[in-house]
Design goal:
The chain has 14 helices and 17 strands. It is an alpha/beta fold. Strand 16 and strand 17 form a beta hairpin.
Length: 418
């Protein structure tokens, strides 16, 4: 079965609201084995919405709308979906009485437009909404399915989980689509694709790469008649990819780099301390976001000023004078300073120019030096990141964690840890 998701609301087009509902619905449909080839967002305009819905109905077995079921003039989804489905609406007196009781119990005068929410399809039924006033609507006509859902997440999510998923499962049986995401570092998207190109040619399972900030993700998806078979298909393809990419695969699904790093440190009884300038404590924050990080992270320093670098990390003032605060020498000294101050196995030092001001031709905005210190010495990397201030800071923190992971794995190779 194929479905299209149509989100309704001018506020979505203006960027005033982020459409998290459509993402949730896409995940649920995928788990049911229902393919979603297109998602559409339409403003509160009758003609444009009607055109979009008619096209969606023509191309798909199922059309699901989100939003536009309220009582106001711009809540047009109910009427337009009925028109697109070739159906009519009639008042459900039970819903009308419930609406009247709802407003009466709260001492609020109900205007006539509120009763629009009691209109239901002739070929279909309402979907109960205990968390709001507008019920969802299910249309079934001419072997097509239309489902209209409310926009507020507090109403949308329970309706999807309690009504839409069970209903659609009765239509699809046990067919399912299962997916897993591999997270990859130290490889660009094109190199990842080149390394596994033959594994990406199949149609089931599928392998799709997409670039994320500072890393690459691969989504492996398989469709089968039951979840167990789909899972086996996914895991076999994942195993093949890991064999190809090796240590570049650092994690899976929702596991970010900081989780992988904390796990490595915990397993090896190692610790890390941080000294950050332009990132302002972002690396420390990401590490301490991970449960159990207190076992591996004794502390960190945000040394924004030159005086703080000297006073808190014992970075020689002469070193700063000679090379500048943004330099490989100072980054290395910060990493060593953090390691010495907290007695940790590893130290991270970050210094750079996040922008938007402060750059020079010799040291442009985006220039960052990142250092990782250990008993083996100090490794320093120079990067010039593009983007806004927030982008430079995030990319710097991400690379610092990647470098820490590399240092842990390099230590494993010397000590024989498997």
């Amino acid at each position: 079965m194929r479905a299209e998701i149509v989100s309704v609301g001018t506020e979505l087009l203006l960027g005033q609201i982020v459409d998290t509902n459509a993402a949730k619905l896409g995940q649920e449909l995928s788990a049911l084995g229902i393919a979603v080839y297109r998602r559409t967002t339409v403003g509160d305009n009758h003609d444009r919405l009607l055109t979009a819905l008619r096209a969606a109905i023509a191309d798909n077995d199922i059309v699901i709308t989100i939003g536009g079921l309220g009582p106001t003039m711009d809540d047009i989804t109910r009427d337009v979906l009925a028109e697109a489905m070739g159906d009519t609406l009639h008042r459900d007196e039970k819903i009308a009485h419930r609406l009247e009781a709802f407003f009466r119990a709260r001492g609020i005068q109900m205007v006539e437009s509120n009763l629009n929410q009691a209109m239901v399809p002739t070929h279909g039924r309402p979907l109960d909404n205990p968390n709001g006033t507008a019920p969802g609507l299910l249309f079934e006509k001419d072997r097509k399915i239309g489902i209209a859902l409310p926009g507020p997440p507090s109403e949308f999510i329970p309706m999807v989980e309690n009504h839409v998923v069970p209903y659609l499962r009765s239509k699809t049986g046990t067919t399912t689509i299962r997916s897993r995401v591999l997270r990859i570092c130290n490889m660009g998207e094109s190199l990842v694709e080149h390394s596994i190109k033959d594994l990406m040619l199949g149609s089931n399972p599928t392998v799709a790469p997409y670039a994320k900030t500072g890393e690459v993700h691969l989504r492996v998806s398989a469709k089968a008649d039951d979840p167990e078979t789909a899972d086996r298909m996914v895991e076999e393809r994942v195993r093949q990819i890991v064999e190809r990419l090796g240590e570049h695969v650092y994690g899976f699904d929702d596991e970010p780099m900081e989780v992988a790093v904390v796990r490595l440190l915990t397993e090896r009884l190692l610790t890390v301390a941080t000294a950050e300038s332009c990132t302002g404590g972002m690396v420390a924050a990401r590490i301490t976001d991970v449960a159990g990080s207190s076992q591996v992270f004794p502390g960190g320093v945000v040394s924004y000023s030159n005086a703080a670098k000297s006073d808190l990390l014992a970075v020689p003032a002469a070193l700063v004078d000679a090379h500048g605060a943004v330099s490989p020498e100072v980054a290395g000294a910060m990493a060593n300073g953090a390691r010495n101050r907290f007695g940790s196995d590893f130290g991270i030092g970050i210094t750079g120019i996040a922008g938007p001001d402060g750059g020079t031709p010799e040291k442009p905005v985006g220039l960052v030096y990142i250092a990782v210190a250990s008993t083996r010495g100090v490794r320093v990397e120079k990067s010039v990141f593009l983007g806004r201030r927030a982008d430079v800071r995030y990319r710097s923190a991400q690379l610092a964690l990647v470098m820490l992971r590399d240092a842990i794995l390099d230590r494993d190779k010397l000590t024989g840890v498997n």
